[in-house]
Structure formats: structure tokens, C-alpha cells
Amino acid sequence: MYGIIFGAVLLTSTLGWIIGSHVYRYFRDEKGLRRYPGMDWLAPFTNVAFMLESNKGFRSKRLQELHAKGMPVIRTGPNSLSYSDPKAIRDIYGHSTKCRKDGQYDILSGSHTHLADVTDSGEHARKRKVLSSAYALKNLEEWEFKVAYTTGRMINQFDKRCGGEIIDYRSWTNFFALDAIAYIGLSQPMGFLDAGNDRCISAGFDGSTKEVNFRECLYGTSTAQSILAWSYPWYKHIVSLSKLVSPRFRNYWNLNKDWDGIYLHQTNQRLARYVKGEELDDFFQALMHDKNGASHNLDFGEILAEISIMMNAGSTTTAIAMANVMYQLLINSEFMRRLQEELDSVLDDEDIVAPYEKVKYLPYLRACLDESLRLFPPTSHGLPRVTPPEGTSILGEYIPGGVTVSMSSYVVHRDPTIFPEPEKYNPDRWLGEAGKELGPYFVSFSAGARGCIGRNISYLEQTVALATMVHRYDITLARPDFVPDRRETFNLHPNELPIVLKLRQRVDELI
Disulfide-capable partner of 105 in 117, 124, 376, 484 (CB 3.0 to 4.6 Å)? Predict the structure, then answer.
């Protein structure tokens, strides 16, 4: 009896202290953030508000709706601000900004950081120098044959399904992007396109192996992290608690272990070939040596971390982008027709896979890609940055040090002063001089020194794949009224894209 009473008193006291401390900090307003409206009534007091919004599955859309009501700065947590004014891009993400990646990247990183989650500026510069040759445009164009090969494997599968079969193009873009990045990065495709599924091996450090589904493991991991990561210093405690009280999150964290095992297995496989003396032209080789053959002397943990982000970010965003642009073209037949005309003017019937050299500078093809990336950026959420200890100026206002600031690409791409009729898919806005003027406000790959180093790989894959598909097939939605559902984790995922294919002309079968 006394134990129950003591437990109730302890619980009540703990909750009272937590609530009281949050209320005290709000009214104390040490950093002067109370002048900004909250995302909701709870947000100025606790990050739980943003976690709850994240759990709903589309927090960037909610922020966009609030910003559109005339709130250029919104308080998303006790110490977090969301911006919508495009002029804030340079202040938060530009090359000269003093803002750095915030503590969320630290809590999500493993024993070793990778290029995307390293927060220290000096360490970031070292990593970027190591990886710059691997991601250089010159290297990528030499690796074009790997993208062409992967596209050919996808076309082989699609040609077999041209008799009216419904194809989930969204799944196949996943298979394509994963095979392509594995071939580019590790000289060995995952084999997903040939198999028509994403079954693969996950390894343990004890040498055990098991079969898992790649996307289930990766997306389960990102779903859990994207909901709980906003708790910052409480993150590891909340992860432990979620394993105890939630079967849903317990499953996510089990999938997280399997995801760790996937890139461990892939790294071990490639490392074994490296130890045997195979000199392969891929990302892994560039990771191990510079262009003069000098070793980078990286720890295995760092190599593993870089392979993990290559297989994650290097596949997910491209797959999403491929599905999105196809959907937009299918519901805007005039734009599809114009793109086919542009492609037909440079591609021959024997160009089963579109040669990159022929299509890389086509203005309308690039406009179609960029407009889809604008409308539904694969990385949609505001990438969090922290103001320097001495504070900084954002939009002409002083923001104290240690404040998390961010801007969602989904939000900024819907600013009607920059992108008129922002909800409308209109590739023409990117053409000519007017299109060039939009460049500073296009942040699908972020901006500044921390902008996506893999954007050239993504454009290479997207360009060849879309040009090939549109030139080779007549494509229709399996259901004319189909609208994809979207769920936001750290990326904005469409759920499916059911299409039907028909060959546009008679061509020889692929080998």
C-alpha cells in the first residue's frame, strides 16, 4: 500500500517538475523567442509537440500551411525556429553562414560520423576532401556505363510486362536506385532489378547472416528516428522507453539492427575484394586512396559509416524523385508530349537506353526534373542548424547563440513571390533567363558548403532513366484518378505509382 502511494507521489512530483521547468523557461524567455508564434500551443514549452506532428506523417505540410498564414518565423520547439522567407536561405545554409549542423546529427550518428552527420567544421572539410574525387562530375561521367547497365536491366523487366500488366513504378525506382548506387559505389549491383524484389543479406558482427527486405529495414529506421530525434538530449532515453512500451517502435528498432547489417555485409564483401588486390573503379576505391594512390588510412568504422550514407541517401532520394516526375508527367499530358518531342529529336530507335551524352543538356528534360524536385523535394524537412555561441543575424534580426533554425524545402518552394502558382507543376518556369534566376531559391539538395555532394549522381541517374522511359514507352496511370499518398520521415515518400506500359516502337530485344 505504502509502495503504491510512494510511487504515485514520485510520479506526480516528477511530472510536476518537468512541466514546471518547461513553464518556467518559457516565461523566463532567456533567448527572447517568445515573440515568435508557436506551431501550436504546446510547441513553445516542449519538443514533444514536434514529435507528435512528425508522427502524423507530414510535418512540412503543416508548417507550410502555418507559414502561408503570414507567419515567416514559427517556433517549433522551446529552442527551435522554422523560417519560410527565401532570403533566410543564405543566412542559415549559405557558404558564409556561421550556423552549423545542430545536435540532432550527433545523437543520430554511430561510433563514427559520415559526411552527412558530421558537425565539426574541420572534420567535415577533411571528409569532403576525401570524398570529393569520388563524387566529381568527371568520375561520374566515366561511371555512366554503370547507370546505362542498370537502366538496361530495368528495361528488360519492363519489356516483359508490356502486355497490360500493372507495374508499381515506385517499387521499381527503388530497385533501380539501389542497384545503381551499389554498382557505382561497390562495383556490384544488389540484384534487385533482376529479382524483382529487395531481398538481401544482413550480417552480424558475429558472422551470422539473415535474409531481410532492404526497404523495410531502411524505412523502418528512418521512420522511428524522424519521430523521436526531436527530443534531443532525451533521445537515447526515449528510444529505450519506446522499445519497452511500444510494439510498433520495438519492431522499428529491430529493423534498425537489420539495416546496420545490410551495409555491414556490403562493406565486408567489397573489402574482401579490395584485400585480394582487385582495383575497381568505384566509390569504395576512391574512399581508400586518393587519385595518386596514397592511402586515406580510414578506420573501418568510418568506411562503414560512409558506405551506410551512400546506400541510404544515395538511393532513397533518387528513387523518390524518379517516381514523382513520372507521376507529374502522367497527369500533365501536354508536358509529357513536349518532353517526348524533345527526346525524339535527339534519340534514335536503336537508343534503347538513352546515352547520357545525348540527353544531359536537354533543357526541357532538366526543367521537368527540376520542377518535380521543387514541387515535392525528396528531402522535404528543414535541415536543422544551430546558431553560433555569439548569435547571428537572420532576416536582419539577431538570434542568440545555440538556437536551432531551419527552413523546409517544401515550404520555401511554395513561396508565391518566387514561384507563382506554387502548387502547379510547370516546367516552363525553369526555361531561359527566368529559370536561371530561380537557382538561389532551389534547395532540393540544400545549399552552401553542406549541400548534397551526391547531386550529380542523382541527376545522372534521373536523366538517363527518365529519358529512356519516355522515349521507349507510352505510359499511362493504371487508375486515371490515382493520387499517391505521401509520408514524411526525413524524406517525403510517395507510397506507390501503378502504371501500364506499351512500347512506342518495335525494337530489338535487349541482351
Answer: 117
